[in-house]
């Protein structure tokens, strides 16, 4: 739990003394000191007060070590980009860069997906993920690659690697496009989205029509990545089916040609 270190860090970042902040919040300086030194545990009402004061969600105050996320991400947080607080914006992003300060593409494979659902905001967890670059993607945007499982998004095959571009604001999400969504309850999802932001949810669709659409409440969302491409060593199932249809059709055409040729030969003999 990072609550004590976070409120001390945020107070100092604002250039406030304990007296300044205690006065502004209407509490005793000794009480604030107790929270900052982790000798007193806050109740829910206190957590709400600190969340409102810093405009940072309780979940962020408690679970994220704000001293490690960097100035740029802190600036995003201070401008209100915290999904736990507002629901309309995607939270700050833990990320890694290479030696030239270029954004990496981190890889979240099948084995790492379970850990990502809880470690997505932890810089120490993110830096342990394999990282790479793709020359055909913009260096000015943030991408991450996830390995999918199952057949719900066929013709994209099971175990494919799908790459997404980070979405900062949920309101930028366009209906009927594919997104990788990190959720609280269901882990990593890859679906086509119908954006019903005004009604407080997304409706998610699979490419495989045997799966029915379902509703995902906005408060269940932690990150969103816009699908840009996928990598697979398998031929998509629909292409296999199309190939079978093509081969069958070609066979039928050949048989038709043979029949026509035979009729022409028979006519010439008459």
Question: What can you tell me about this protein's structure?
Answer:
37% of the residues lie in helices and 20% in strands. By secondary structure, it is of the alpha+beta class. It has three domains: 3-68, lambda repressor-like DNA-binding domains (434 Repressor (Amino-terminal Domain)), CATH 1.10.260; 105-231, Umud Fragment, subunit A; 235-270. A nine-stranded mixed β-sheet has the order 2-1-3-4-9-5-6-7-8. The protein is elongated and about 115 Å long.
Label the CATH architecture of the largest domain: Ribbon
- Average of per-residue pLDDT values: 83
Compute the gyration radius: what is it? 27 Å
SSE topology string = HHHHHHHEHHEEEEEEEEH
Termini separation:
96 Å
| Tally of contiguous helical segments | 10
Helix fraction by DSSP (H/I, runs of at least 4):
25-40%
SSE blueprint and pairings:
Blueprint lengths: L2 H11 L4 H8 L3 H8 L7 H11 L3 H6 L7 H8 L4 H4 L18 E4 L4 H7 L3 H4 L4 E2 L10 E5 L13 E6 L10 E7 L4 E9 L4 E5 L8 E4 L3 E11 L5 H33 L1
Parallel strand pairs: 1-3
Antiparallel strand pairs: 1-2, 3-4, 4-9, 5-6, 5-9, 6-7, 7-8
Helix pairs in contact: 2-3
Notable features of this structure?
270 residues, alpha+beta, 434 Repressor (Amino-terminal Domain), 3 domains, nine-stranded mixed beta sheet, 10 helices
């Amino acid at each position: 739990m990072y609550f004590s270190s976070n409120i001390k860090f945020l107070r100092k970042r604002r250039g406030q003394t304990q007296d300044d902040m205690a006065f502004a919040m209407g509490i005793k300086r000794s009480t604030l000191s107790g929270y900052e030194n982790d000798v007193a545990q806050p109740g829910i009402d206190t957590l709400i007060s600190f969340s409102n004061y810093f405009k940072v969600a309780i979940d962020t105050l408690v679970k994220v070590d704000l001293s490690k996320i960097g100035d740029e991400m802190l600036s995003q947080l201070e401008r209100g980009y915290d999904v736990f607080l507002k629901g309309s914006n995607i939270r700050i992003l833990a990320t890694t860069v290479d030696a030239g300060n270029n954004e990496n593409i981190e890889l979240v494979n099948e084995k790492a997906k379970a850990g990502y659902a809880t470690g997505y905001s932890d810089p120490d967890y993110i830096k342990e993920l394999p990282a790479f670059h793709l020359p055909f993607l913009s260096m000015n945007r943030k991408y991450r690659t996830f390995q999918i499982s199952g057949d719900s998004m066929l013709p994209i095959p099971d175990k494919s690697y799908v790459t997404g571009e980070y979405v900062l604001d949920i309101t930028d999400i366009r209906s009927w496009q594919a997104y990788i969504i990190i959720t609280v309850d269901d882990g990593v999802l890859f679906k086509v989205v119908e954006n019903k932001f005004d009604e407080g949810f997304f409706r998610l669709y699979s490419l495989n029509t045997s799966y029915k659409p379902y509703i995902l409440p906005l408060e269940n969302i932690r990150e969103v990545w816009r699908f840009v491409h996928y990598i697979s060593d398998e031929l998509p199932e629909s292409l296999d089916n199309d190939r079978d249809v093509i081969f069958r059709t070609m066979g039928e055409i050949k048989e038709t040609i043979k029949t026509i040729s035979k009729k022409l030969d028979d006519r010439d003999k008459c």
